[in-house]
Amino acid sequence: MKKKSLVALLVCSLTLASTPVTVFADSYDEQIQQKDQQINNLKNEQASAQSQITALANDIETLNSKVAELEAKETTLTNETLKLQDEIAKLKIRIAKRQDKIDAQARDTQVNGQASTFIGAVLGSDSVSEAISRVQAMSTLVGANQDLLKQQQADEKVVEEKVKENEAKIKEVAANQAELADQKKGLANQQAELEVMKASLAAEQAETENEKKDLQAKKAAAEAEAARIKKEQEAAEKARQKAAAEQAAIAKQAQEQAAQQAAAAAEQPETPSNSGTTGGSSTGAGTSGGTSSSTGSSTEEPSGGSTTPSVETPSNSGSTGGTGVDHSNSGNAYAYGQCTWYVKSVAPWVGTYWGNGAQWGASAAADGYRVDSTPEAGAVVVFGAGQMVGDWQADGTYGHVGYVQSYNASSNTITMTQGGMGFSTPGGPNTQTLSASGLQYIHRY
């Protein structure tokens, strides 16, 4: 019954020890899946942003083409306007010269009179036919001057209308170009904003991927810790089975010895030398009783002797110089910002699964460490649930732990460093000096 109970206890211990690591591994898997989902979402958002950027780039290219066309058209219109202005200038010069002639003729008409001119021309003719020719020539000249003046005025008006038309077109092109430039500027701003958004999404993706890698590393560490614990548990189970086998062998040997002694005692009364001798019979009975006593002793002692190596020896297998189990290679599985995390970081030899601060004394004792009320530099100081830590009080459920930097025997005070979310530096070190009395200490040596 004892053996079955021990096996059941070990199985229960294995289950309880491995369950948290399994839960942590499952939790890491779930968090990693969440990071994967976030990364996929960010990639989709980046793809959408890139599509918008590409579309805007095409729009900007189209607008640039329109602006180029308008600029070419504006250049053409400008050249045509310059040409027209040159023609207008030349016509105005011609008109001005002809206007001088017209003005001279008008002055001549006013001074001499047109009728006198015609009469003089007729009277000065040698014949009637010459007079008629002169009159016709003068009439033709006057008519030509009037037609030329009208044509010049009409041409000037046409040219001025064309100039106004070209100027209107130039203004229209300039207005369209300004509008297109505004649109181009707006699209460029949108493109810049999308580029910024894309860069932000890429940075967020990189950060998320780094967080995923960190979770994967933590998962791997948790799995490695689980494998280490399992290996230790398997080694402990093998040691227990070996001790149980040794105990069973010793018990079997003791039973065989007892059976042999009982058989020998049973044969003694049949010996002829002892027949009819009451004292010999009594002696035989006494011998039998002594044998029985010896047998009982030999049955219990091996059992007790085998228990010691099966329990104590494995628990102290990692100790050095008579100390408890050294957990320096187990890593720090406590939560950052907790007092237990800080003490484990400065004293790697303490246990990885010693529980909350208030539980450390019992856990350390179970691991073979010396736990007492003697203050000492390099020791871990333990505060019970609700116990005062100098001028403040430890948590009413979890207690508190710190690392003793020095001990002043004259004032009976310790100076310790510690961590915790209640301090300005949760990860430590936060130094405090307080009375050394009434506290529990875990000693490395």
Descriptive account of the structure:
- With 445 residues, the protein is of the alpha+beta class.
- The protein is built from six helices and eight strands; from the N terminus they run ααααααββββββββ.
- Strands 1-8-2-5-6-7 form a six-stranded antiparallel beta sheet.
- β5 and β6 form a beta hairpin.
List keywords for this structure.
single chain; 445 residues; alpha+beta; Helix Hairpins; endopeptidase fold (from Nostoc punctiforme); six-stranded antiparallel β-sheet; 6 helices; 8 strands; rod-shaped
What is the count of β-strands? 8
Helicity level: over 70%
Q: Compute the separation of the termini in Å.
A: 39 Å
Largest sheet, order of strands side by side? 1-8-2-5-6-7
Shape: rod-shaped
Strand-pairing-aware structural class: alpha+beta
- Main beta sheet: 6 strands, antiparallel
Please state the average pLDDT score.
Answer: 78
CATH class of the domain at 18-219: Mainly Alpha
Proportion in β-strands: 5-15%
The whole-angstrom Rg is 59 Å
CATH architecture of the domain at 18-219: Orthogonal Bundle
Number of helices: 6
